[in-house]
Amino acid sequence: MTEDGVPGVGVAVHDSGSGRVGLVASHRSPHVLLRPLDGGREWEADPGHLRPLSRAEFLSAQLAEVNARSRHPRPC
Predict the structure, then answer these.
(1) d(CA 49, CA 13)
(2) What is d(CA 68, CA 33) in angstroms, rounded to the nearest whole number?
(3) Which of 1, 4, 25, 40 has its CA 20 to 30 A from that of 72?
(4) 1 in any annotated domain
(5) Residue 75: inside a domain, yes or no?
(6) Could you tell me if residue 61 is inside a domain?
(7) Which of 50, 59, 20, 53 is nearest to 36 (CA)?
(8) What is the full DSSP assignment across 8-74?
(9) What does the pLDDT average to over 45-61?
(10) Whole domain around residue 24: which residue ranges?
(11) What is the pLDDT of residues 17-26, one digit of tens each?
(12) pLDDT tens, position by position, 26-35
């Protein structure tokens, strides 16, 4: 966490504004830039809507991404 209570770069968070899980990529005042766990298009989030994931939540989110990729592989 940064001194203003915003999760630091690289921290896995839940964005309650979008209902998504992502990694903090950077801070762009007044927003935080997040990216999906498996890569992809980044999105801006309100820092007030973010909370760090527990280890169990992080592992569950990673597993969900792996399962989704196995059902719908990306084209080469």
Answers:
(1) 10
(2) 23
(3) 25
(4) no
(5) no
(6) yes
(7) 20
(8) PTT-EEEETTTTEEEEEEEEETTEEEEE-TT----EEE-GGGEEEPPHHHHHHHHHHHHHHHHHSPP
(9) 95
(10) 12-69
(11) 999 999 999 9
(12) 998 889 999 9
